Every structure is written in C-alpha cells, then in structure tokens.
Amino acid sequence: MNKKISLGLALSLIAVSMAVTFILTSFFSLQSFNKKVVDVNEKSKKYSALQVLDGYIRENYFGEIDENKLSDGLMKGYVSGIGDKYSRYLTAAEYLTEKNDNSGELVGLGLTLAEDASGYMRISEIMEDSPAYDSGLLDGDIITAIDGLDVKEAGFSEAMDAMRGTEGSPVTLTVRRDGKDDDYSFVRRSIEVKTVRAEMLGSQIGYIKISGFKENTPEQFIAALERLTTNGAKSLIFDLRDCDGDLIPALEECLDPLLPEGVIANAEYKDGHTETIIYSDESALDLPMTTIVNGGTESAAELFAASLRDFANAPVVGSQTYGKAVMQETTEMDSGGAVILTVAKYSTTVSECYDGIGITPDYQVENEDENVDAQYNKAVEVLLTAE
After folding, report:
1. C-alpha dihedral sign at 49, 55, 58, 60
2. pTM
3. What's the CATH number for 105-192?
4. What is the per-residue pLDDT across 198-236, written as a single tens digit (0 to 9) for each?
5. Which secondary-structure segment (H or E) carries 152?
6. Which of 12-16, 136-140, 271-275 is predicted least confidently?
7. With the C-alpha atoms ordered 110, 115, 121, 123, is the resulting torsion angle positive or negative?
8. 191 pairs with which residues across the strands?
9. Torsional sign, CA 211, 83, 361, 272
10. 196-386: what CATH class?
11. Contacts of 60 by beta carbon, 8 Å cutoff, 6+ apart
12. Within 10 A of 369 (CB to CB), how many other CB atoms are there?
C-alpha cells in the first residue's frame, strides 16, 4: 500500500536536509579557512622577519650591497631551507651551465678542476678532443691564475666563473708544475661530452661503460650497441659505476632497444597520481646481460640496473648503490635563473622504490685490491657461466 507524505512533512524534511548540508559545508569550509589563515600568518611572520633583517643590514652593513647577488642569495636560501638535498636554485649563469651540461656539450677547454689544498685549482682530468688535450697540460697541474686573476685570492667559486666563457673567446692560464709557472693560451670551443665507451672483451662479450645520461647519450649508446652486436657480441656488460644518472628521457631511449614491450617504470607525485616515465616498445634484445654498480651509481643509473634486472633477468654485480629514486623538475624563473625541485619518487613496476636504500646486487663484490677489478671480473664470470 502506498503511503503519502504530507506537504508540511516534506517541506520539513527538505529544510532539515538543507540545514545538515549547510552545517557540514560550513564545518569543512571553516577548517579550510582556518588552515589558510594559519598559512597566511606563518608566511607573514617569515616575510616580516626577513624585512626586519633587510632593514637592519641596509642600515648597518659596512659595505656595498650587490642587489643581484642578494636576490640570488635569497632564492638559494629559500630552496635550501626546505631541507631537500636534491632541490636547489640556480642563478642565470649556473642555469646556462646546467643546460649545457645536460645537452652533452660544453663550451670551454675540456678541464675537470678541483680545489687544491694550496688554495689554487688542480687539474684532475683532461677531456679528449678538447682545446687542452694536446696542449702539454697534465693531470695534477696547478692553475694559479686565469687571465691574470689570482685563483687563491679570488677563491674557487669566482675562479670557476672566470674559466667560463663564450665559444671563440680567448683565455690564458698560468700553470704551476714542479714549482715553475708557465702561461698557456687557449680559445674556448664547444666540446661533445662522451658518456658512452664500448669495446669487445674477447670474441663474444660486449662491454659498455656509461658515465651519465645526457641528451646525446642515447645516440652514443645505440651506436655502441649496434657496433658490438654487429661484431659478434653474444652477451653484454653495462658498467654503471660512478654514474650519477641525469635525464630520465635519455635513460628511456637507452632502455627501449633492450627490454620487452610495456610500462617499465612509473613516477608518483605529491597528489598521489602516477605517470609512466619509462616505456619500451615491442623490440627487445634477447642476449644475456649484466650490470656493474657501486656506491656512486645513482638516480637514472640505478633505474637502468633495476629495469634490466626486473625485465631482462640481468643480474646486478658490485656493491650497494647510492639510493636516489626521486625525480627533479626544472622551472625557469623570471630572473633568468631556475629552480630544480624534487616533485616525485619513482620505481619500476616490479620492484619497490629504493630511495634512501639503494639496490642490493645479486653478486656482492668489493674492489679491495686497487690493482684488481674484482667487480668487473665477476661480471665477466657471470656471463661466461650463463652461456
């Protein structure tokens, strides 16, 4: 039997429903409002404290303030203050250097420099096919001056700035060796960074050493891979020791010809959504493979080893890796500088995220004798046993 509800009761129910909805909406809106008020108040306190500090320094500092350096310093301090070791602010000059580095090309002399205990610069490596390569400079030489600028007096950071310059620009270095100073003159030029080195080990094992994943790494990697397989390689060793990774898109291009079709790795963002960062097409290389890693293997290099192990049954040889599985995004600012910010964590679709932990090798080997590469020898042994 149908029951009828009176008009008055219906109106009462509607009113109650509207009241409950209003109360609930007001409650959550009030919570949101209170949170925003707290955020605004906290921000106000921070900016107010900064304003007080700025006023005090401008009134009392005995010296001139470089407004551009001050602005860059504030930006650097803010990003540093969030406490993430991978996030950082780059000045316009630093950002330009970063972009050049990521491209796999650099403009300069081809020198890797370190701060020496003397306060000067020490040459730690000289790139092949660079202006400095055939100049007579040697690893271990000390640079005391750059175009007359005393390196020790200027400090390492300012001296590094003096080393930078545009393609085609001249520079003179004063170099000390065995207590004697000599001048060397150069012209800066563009240099392609070689991140891939390959060779045959005997007649059947191909060896590929990867030092980084730059924009030009895939081209070098694929060329090396094709050369080795054409020359008869029946198995492959990928040496990722001291490879700090770099660009995930470059990593994806290197993994693609090696792995079967499908999603290889995903990134998870702050709001919980995920995105595919490594996808492989249907072509795959059906050869025994292994990777060599150590504590200097990090980021994209770790993901390379994890992906090969998960999808190509390639064992990992060496020592525990660094443990960086978070992704940074670079955003250019109006100042011309840029913020590099950690925005996601990632993992393969098979394994757990290894951030802060690292990858444990299937064959744990330490290089205890500097004259014997036990990790390399083990990788060769693993492949010979697999054949």
Report:
1. negative
2. 0.79
3. 2.30.42.10
4. 999 988 999 999 999 999 999 999 999 999 999 999 999
5. helix 151-154
6. 12-16
7. negative
8. 106
9. negative
10. alpha beta
11. none
12. 8
